[in-house]
Amino acid sequence: MKELSLHSEEARANCSLQVDESANNLRISQEVNGDSLGDEFRGYVFKIMGGCDKQGFLMKKGVLTQGRTPCFRGYGRRNGERRRKSVRGCIVSPDLSVLNLVVVKKGDSDLPGLTHVEKPRMRGPKRASKIRKLFNFTKEDDVRKYVNTYRRTFTNQKGKVTSKAPKIQRLVTPLTLQRKRARIAEKKKRVAKAKSEAAEYQKLLASRLKEQRERRSESLAKRRSRLSGASKPSITV
């Protein structure tokens, strides 16, 4: 006997039940007929999503074995660093304690705690482009009022009733456009300032080099005059 944890994407609920070994030798992502699990699951189709044993070792997709095997795992570590961690294969074995299933097709009757009630999706997309894609909007439409569908109202510690909604990311507003124009203007200002400072520096550098060459030529002329005066022979009468 093995405990199966069923997950329904429509109901967003879980339930556990005891079944026989009809799911053995199946792999992850394979479908299971609900008729083999019991009469209450007649017509249901489940999909295997994973599982674990009594020691908590999870099944890993792509590992074609029934037992445990050490695999290189790099999750949660430094870039390029991996370590061997024991995982279970993707094939269902008798020593599993929990097997996770997803309801793919609903059967004849509802399952209490799983499909008898529909729970609405409480969280929607936060990115503005994904909200437009969800409601089929254009760039000219305002998407801020459609976030109020999952706005929640609560009472704070002071007893005041307030509401809160998720912040829309990448939302183009007049304020964001103004900030963008300010950033571009500031960047142009910095570029112009850098160019003017570079031109002034080159001008100063050229003047300093010219002065250095003039001083060098003057010192060479004085040295030549001294050497020429010392080399002339003195005439005595």
TrEMBL record:
Start-end of Basic and acidic residues biased regions: 210-221
Lineage: Eukaryota, Viridiplantae, Streptophyta, Embryophyta, Tracheophyta
Coiled-coil blocks: 177-204
InterPro entries listed in its UniProt record: Ribosomal_eS6, Ribosomal_eS6-like
Entry protein name: 40S ribosomal protein S6
Molecular functions per Gene Ontology: structural constituent of ribosome
Keywords: Coiled coil, Ribonucleoprotein, Ribosomal protein
GO biological process, one term: translation
Pfam families noted in UniProt: Ribosomal_S6e
Residue ranges, annotated region (Disordered): 210-237
Gene Ontology CC: ribonucleoprotein complex; ribosome
Similarity comment: Belongs to the eukaryotic ribosomal protein eS6 family.
Keyword Transmembrane attributed: no
Gene3D superfamilies hit by this protein: 1.20.5.2650
PANTHER family from the UniProt entry: 40S RIBOSOMAL PROTEIN S6 (PTHR11502)
